[in-house]
Design goal:
The structure is a homodimer. The first copy, chain A, is about 25% helix and about 25% strand. Chain A is of the alpha/beta class and about 325 residues long. In chain A, strands 3, 4, 5, 6, 7, 14 and 15 form a seven-stranded mixed beta sheet that branches. In chain A, helix 7 links the parallel strand 12 and strand 13. In chain A, helix 2 packs across helix 3. The longest helix of chain A is centred in the middle third of the chain and has 13 residues. The mean pLDDT of chain A is about 95. Chains A and B meet through helix 7 and strand 13 of A and helix 7 and strand 13 of B. Strand 13 of chain A pairs antiparallel with strand 13 of chain B.
Chain lengths: ~325, ~325
């Protein structure tokens, strides 16, 4: 019998989540049953989309239940196996984050491919955030040669990959981030024009200064004033991949308003939201391209790693205050 | 020498246009030169998109010049011809509205097809508004069998055609309009659920009541709270044709805000603006279908006709107060 600790949703957050919406509980984990493995998580992911699951409403993802452990992306090591498909020491990926140790059917976890990447890369650049960037830029925004690309939250887990894929493809890239350190990182990864949104009174003016001839593609991670800026700066037939709107995830009544939707008529813009799980057909192409780009040193990544299950909720909260930098992870072992 | 009267833009409107932004001027029209025809306009169109041309800004359409006659769709009769391609009495369509009589190169006007429709139909159901409905619904919103369709300003020039094409295709249609008379007309043309937006405190609640299982397609002529309602009520993978946002055409500083764009991410919505002139490849198919539907009595239309060039500016202003009903026309002869 092993003891694990896991993070429960204690109460549903209203507005910005607070530490006391969460609690850490100890549970006993028996030996794995037939067909099961026991996994010790090495890293778990915290992602903005999880905020939506904390609300009790119909959405593309079922809500977390109160008084139960939450879940999400994690990578871990098999510590005991009762199934021939996996053996002790195998590294696996699962949706069983927010806990230290768990039992699960062997077929519900995925063995990590041995491509020489650290395991936590499969929660970031080589995982869901990376695939999100790839799908959004190449399929949803239909990236073309000579497109000028704007990406918001460009130092974030998804944004930093968007920016670098666009640079690999030879596009001009404008990125926004908050603060000098994140903006310096954007310059380092080759972003052509950097907007420090915390230092700008008017993001629209800053974007038009950065892209006086307009933008063709906008990869939206923020919504609100960033989306307004992109609508104002878009060229005719611009394409927007709507990936997330973190500015509004904690809105209690109304989200950040958008005033410039009228530009989408006159400029024939296409704005398209997407959920990466509907585009898993692109995973093989993504893994092929991304392994090559990583091997060639063409993609740099930044991550923030907090340690221990007791700090998992705090790591999640950092996503909304901008206190993380790049992919936010929690190291569990 | 003939005398014509024409409407000039005297000053650029700020906010809601006022009668004194316009003035009627008399001009002399000489005999048509070589290759030219002289046309007496029978009807001219006033359309919401003209509001944009009254502003001096870069857009898909060049702005009207101050102190010159405005222009727009018109149908008229050739009264003198100096070109073999057209003869006296021919009915033609042109972009030379806002005036009574004009000379123009014969090749710059289009002879109306003899399909048994009254000439003003080519400014409405069989013209630009009809084609706009057809393109927006079938190409931009990719209408499919079983789609639930919501159209705003559904009694308007474009909206009434959208609603009826969708009914012909067998779809369930929800339409919004302002006031009992317009709503009664929507029932008459087969709209399944009618929302009188002037009688509803909350358009979102009204739409969810009308479409408890959600909408698949939204044809937006209004923007603002109507767009928010459609975002809230949309099913996953909903498609929005953004055709116009009349709620915001006269905004001085900021347009009507939209708060619900975040739904476009979670529900993988596609919102696409369009300008009908970029889709003229669909004109033959449209004219084929529309002639058939009109001949079969499947399309009813409502229009408001004001008389005389002196009332043209007033007719235009009615578009923004809702005092028109259906296609707004000015009869000039």
């Amino acid at each position: 019998m092993t003891t694990s600790r896991e993070v429960h949703l204690k109460s549903r957050p209203v507005g910005m989540p607070k530490p006391d919406n969460f609690e850490v509980k100890s549970v006993d984990v028996p030996a794995p049953g037939p067909g099961e493995v026991q996994v010790q998580n090495l890293f778990m992911s915290v992602d903005p989309y999880m905020r939506g699951r904390m609300m009790d409403r119909k959405s593309y993802a079922a809500p977390f239940n109160l008084g139960e452990a939450m879940y999400g992306g994690a990578v871990g090591k098999v510590v005991a196996s009762n199934d021939p498909s996996l053996k002790q020491g195998d590294l696996v990926q699962s949706m069983m984050g927010w806990r230290e140790v768990f039992n699960a059917p062997a077929k519900s976890v995925q063995k990590l491919p041995g491509v020489g990447l650290p395991p936590q890369a499969f929660l970031g650049v080589a995982g869901m955030p990376g695939l999100t960037a790839y799908v959004g830029l190449l399929r949803i925004a239909e990236l073309k040669a000579d497109d000028v690309v704007f990406v918001s939250a460009a130092s974030g887990a998804v944004g930093q990959i968007v920016a670098q894929i666009a640079k690999i493809k030879g596009n001009r890239v404008i990125g926004s981030a908050g603060g000098a350190e994140k903006c310096a990182f954007l310059k380092e990864i080759g972003v052509d024009e950097v907007i420090d949104y915390k230092a700008e009174a008017d993001i629209t003016k800053a974007l038009i200064r950065a892209a006086p001839d307009g933008i063709d593609v906008y990869f939206d991670n923020v919504g609100g004033a960033h989306l307004d800026a992109a609508l104002a700066a878009a060229k005719p037939f611009g394409r927007f991949a709507l990936c997330g709107m973190i500015a509004s995830y904690n809105a209690v009544e109304k989200a950040d308003p958008v005033y410039n939707m009228m530009f989408s008529v006159g400029k024939s813009l296409k704005l398209q939201g997407f959920i990466v799980s509907n585009h898993s057909d692109m995973l093989p192409a993504f893994l092929g391209d991304m392994s090559k780009w990583l091997a060639e040193g063409k993609i740099k990544t930044r991550e923030t790693i907090d340690e221990g299950i007791d700090n998992a909720a705090g790591a999640f909260l950092k996503l909304f205050t901008g206190d993380n930098f790049g992919k936010m992870l929690v190291k569990l072992a």
